[in-house]
Amino acid sequence: MHVELLFWAGCPSHEKALAELREVLAEEGFDPGEVVVRKVETEGDAATERFIGSPTIRFDGVDVQPEPNEPAGLTCRVYRRRDGRFSPTPDPEDVRDALRRAHARTAASGEHSAPAAAATATAEERR
């Protein structure tokens, strides 16, 4: 499973989002060090990446809170927490749910995406 956090330097919330993402990954048994952190620097990059604001968290290319009608651009993203508050970072429970959905999709497709405890298997054990 590919885990990525995209950010724009103009928004300071990406560090908090990264910490919360890594915490959820660890709690769910995945390696928090596997997060790919990518900086989006230009409007062109934002359009290419379908980047609708910073921070954006994706599992296998799927946004944790998809907003299909939002335009791409270098902007700060605003999330709605489950308790109704607005936040510069997604609700950790939304991140957890998205992680579980991505893991289920990966497992259903037969690809290898195991929690960290199982990921230590040797190449021979995985065959």
What best-fitting shape do the alpha-carbon axes yield? globular
The figure for the number of domains is: 1
Order of SSEs, N→C?
EHEHEEEEHH
Mean pLDDT: 88
The N- to C-terminal Cα distance equals: 18 Å
Note down, in words, how this protein is organized.
The protein has helices spanning 14-27, 43-49, 92-109, 123-126, and strands at 3-7, 36-39, 56-59, 62-63, 79-80, 86-87. The radius of gyration is 15 Å and the shape is globular. The protein has one domain (3-110). Residues 116-127 have low confidence and may be disordered. Strand 5 (79-80) and strand 6 (86-87) form a beta hairpin. It starts with a strand and ends with a helix. The chain has 127 residues and is an alpha+beta fold.
Question: In terms of topology, how is this protein built?
Answer:
Layout: E1 3-7, H1 14-27, E2 36-39, H2 43-49, E3 56-59, E4 62-63, E5 79-80, E6 86-87, H3 92-109, H4 123-126
Helix pairs in contact: 1-3
What's this, in brief?
This protein is an alpha+beta fold and 127 residues long. It has 4 helices and 6 strands, in the order βαβαββββαα.
Keywords:
127 residues, 4-stranded mixed sheet, two-stranded antiparallel sheet, 4 helices, disordered C terminus
